[in-house]
Write a structure and sequence with these properties.
Radius of gyration: 47 Å
Bound molecules: ligand C2E, calcium ion
Helix content: 55-70%
Number of strands: 14
Shape: elongated
Number of helices: 24
Largest sheet: 8 strands, mixed, barrel
Distance between the termini: 140 Å
């Protein structure tokens, strides 16, 4: 082997080594980031290794032994195919990273197939021709120089143009290296033409392979720098995206609560003590829409609502943000005259309550607005937003301004609700007993159990003071059970035929209501005949057939049933027949009105008559005057209850009571 060939082999082997290092680096990058171009470059450099290894092998083979045709063919085929595939992959990857557009897999496969076909054709053409040596050389070497020189230069131009999309020195370096390599290959092509024309080797031409090596190394390192820059840019972008997602709502693109608070704080500082109004806008029934039609419908409505706000905001400098799934916040700086704020809010309500056509059923969206005006209603963004949102809670008002009094009231209510829960748990809520008397006005036939809260600070509280908060806290069923247990236990110690206990709709609706009653009777040893349950008409009517079912079970146990507050609900007299009740209690509103109002009197009279015909007991409630007592006694009412006879007593007093002094 002569020294020129040795130099060539050495440069080929150096390029194999270099290519292997590059392929490993790109494979590593590909494993972490999965970009197509990295995969293509990996394989491209593997191809380069194969090509150079084949070239080195062919040279060595040729000098050491007379290789047979078959092995020469295989080597030549492999090197040509590897070369064209390598170039195709290198160009594909570079173009993809430059314009950041994914390449169609089918197109990529076709291009690679074309490269294989082309490489095969070039290596097999004239392979068997006796005198085809110069043609073979032209095809395998000359054509390679020509095609690759042109392709590299064209790619260099494309990459140079695309630099706008991927700035940094990596792309510029690659473009430069591509163009240099392209020029080098063109030069080598010229040299090749010259050598074939003169049919001799020009001295020193093999030195060009050193330049090849340098150019390829430049391409490879340029690519590595490019990848590193690209990765850093992507990381930066991802960080920015995450930061954006933390502060903006993805669905509407509006600032979220966190960002709104920050922006408002800046606005407040810029206002320098001038007023700034914050509006919290609630799309009241959007949650319902989400439940019935699906979240995507609710989201579509929310998006349209926010667009309407932005489009018809009315104020010059509006800031709109999304607070949660159904709430928007808007801030308007001092430029708007204060008197305009309410009008502005009402305008928005009109805009937002206009029909939305993306929901099939055309649900009418309801909207309310709470307004807080800084600095009076809050000097920092968080409290202004919170106060605007708190003002929404007035269900009757479309637009409500924040007020410290109402805020205090809300806080008091919240604290009281907490207290009532504790009071219920610690047994401060106890049964009182109001006598129900027979028509002689003196014999006690029973007691109605009425709850009293023996509050350590406020004294004795009536149900009207605490039932509302218990209801708000969802504690009514628990309260009913507490009263049931207490009343049954204490009633066992009272000398009266029976007690009447009020049951709320919450208690009555519970599935294990009947079981609870049974349990309370069993543990107190109170005979079922001594217990009467009072349910109101409205409770009874929630689900008439279920009511009848439960009442029948209770009756079967021997428990009495009273229909309370008769006349205030919507029940028709027909219900009296349908439900298994034994007593009706005529509400005191009717009792008072009956004496002065002819129509009420007519109704009450017919109810009493009917009840007597049906064999029901009648309790006249809230009797305060003797003439009321007389009137109803004459009508035929069987039982009476009211302050005329006795108020509600604590257990000890009720126990001591044997009869009432007749009025
Ligand atoms: P209700 O069942 O209609 O009870 C009758 C109410 O009329 C009681 O009010 C009683 O104190 C009051 N009252 C009695 N005589 C007179 C009178 O001559 N004049 C006037 N103006 N009022 C009279 P109270 O104790 O304040 O209870 C109010 C309501 O709270 C009750 O109305 C009942 O619906 C509910 N409630 C009371 N205790 C309980 C209970 O333990 N459980 C349940 N679920 N509800 C209860
Ligand atoms: Ca009652
Ligand atoms: Ca009543």
């Amino acid at each position: 082997m002569d020294s020129a060939s040795r130099a060539l082999v050495a440069s080929y082997l150096a390029q194999v080594l270099l290519g292997a290092v590059q392929a490993t680096i790109f494979a590593h990058f590909y494993r972490t980031s999965r970009h197509d171009y990295l995969r293509w470059w990996t394989w491209s450099f593997v191809g380069l290794c194969v090509y150079h290894a084949c070239a080195a092998a062919a040279l060595m083979w040729a000098s050491f032994s007379a290789a047979d045709l078959a092995s020469r063919l295989i080597l030549s085929w492999l090197s040509q195919v590897a070369f064209y595939v390598q170039v195709t992959l290198l160009l594909l990857g570079s173009l993809q990273i430059a314009d950041a557009r994914p390449r169609d897999a089918v197109v990529v496969r076709r291009l690679l197939f074309a490269a294989v076909v082309f490489g095969s054709a070039v290596s097999l053409a004239f392979a068997f021709a006796e005198n085809g040596a110069s043609e073979r050389l032209w095809l395998r070497v000359g054509l390679r120089y020509l095609i690759c020189g042109a392709a590299f230069m064209a790619t260099a131009v494309l990459l140079w143009r695309q630099r706008v999309n991927s700035p940094g020195i990596g792309p510029a370096m690659v473009a430069l290296a591509f163009s240099t390599y392209g020029l080098l290959l063109s030069f080598e092509f010229g040299l090749f033409v010259l050598q074939s024309a003169q049919q001799r080797r020009i001295d020193g031409a093999e030195l060009l392979s050193v330049f090849d090596l340098v150019a390829q190394a430049c391409i490879a390192f340029g690519l590595i720098i490019w990848v590193a820059e690209d990765e850093r840019r992507r990381a930066d972008r991802a960080t920015r995206d995450v930061e954006h997602a933390r502060r903006y709502d993805a669905s509407t693109g509006l600032p979220n609560r966190v960002e709104m608070e920050r922006l408002l704080q800046v606005d407040l500082q810029a206002c320098a003590g001038n007023s700034l109004a914050v509006f919290a806008i609630d799309l009241v029934n959007l949650g319902q829409v989400a439940k019935s039609f699906g979240v995507h419908h609710a989201e579509a409505i929310f998006r349209e609502a926010s667009q309407r706000l932005l489009a018809h905001g009315g104020a010059a400098t509006l800031r709109v943000a999304r607070m949660d799934s159904h709430r928007l916040a808007v801030s308007v700086p001092a430029a708007e005259p204060a008197a305009e704020w309410e009008r502005l809010a009402l305008d928005w309500v009109t805009q937002l309550e206009r029909p939305y056509d993306n929901v099939a059923a055309g649900v009418a969206i309801e909207c309310t607005v709470g307004i807080a005006v800084g600095p009076g209603d809050g000097t920092d963004a968080a409290s202004l937003l919170a106060h605007a949102e708190q003002s929404i809670h007035d269900p009757l008002q479309k637009v409500a301004f924040f007020s410290y009094e109402r805020d205090q009231e809300l806080r008091r209510r919240l604290a009281f609700a907490e207290e009532s829960r504790a009071g219920l748990r610690s047994g401060q809520i106890v049964p009182f007993f109001q006598p129900i008397v027979a028509s002689d006005g003196s014999a006690i036939t029973g007691f109605e159990v009425l709850a009293r809260w023996l509050h350590p600070v406020r004294g004795t509280l009536l149900p009207a003071d605490f039932l509302g908060v218990l209801e708000d806290r969802g504690l009514m069923a628990q309260f009913d059970r507490h009263m049931l247990e207490q009343a049954c236990r204490q009633a066992a110690g009272l000398r009266v035929p029976r007690i009447s206990l009020n049951v709320s709709a919450y208690g009555f609706e519970r599935d294990d209501f009947v079981a609870d009653v049974r349990q309370a009777l069993a543990s107190s040893a109170l005979p079922a005949e001594c217990l009467c349950l009072e349910i109101t008409e409205s409770t009874a009517l929630i689900d008439l057939s279920r009511t009848r079912d439960i009442l029948l079970q209770l009756r079967a146990l021997g428990i009495g049933i009273s229909l309370d507050d008769f006349g205030t609900g919507y029940s028709s007299l027909a219900h009296l027949r349908e439900l298994p009740i034994d007593t009706i209690k005529i509400d005191r509103v009717f009792v008072h009105a009956a004496l002065d109002d002819v129509k009420t009197a007519a109704i009450v009279e017919s109810v009493v008559t009917l009840a007597r015909r049906l064999g029901l007991d009648i309790v006249i409630e809230g009797v305060e005057q003797r003439r009321e007592f007389e009137y109803f006694r004459q009508l035929g009412a069987t039982h009476f209850q009211g302050w005329l006879f006795a108020p509600a007593f604590g257990f000890a007093d009720a126990q001591a009571l044997t009869h009432i002094a007749a009025p």
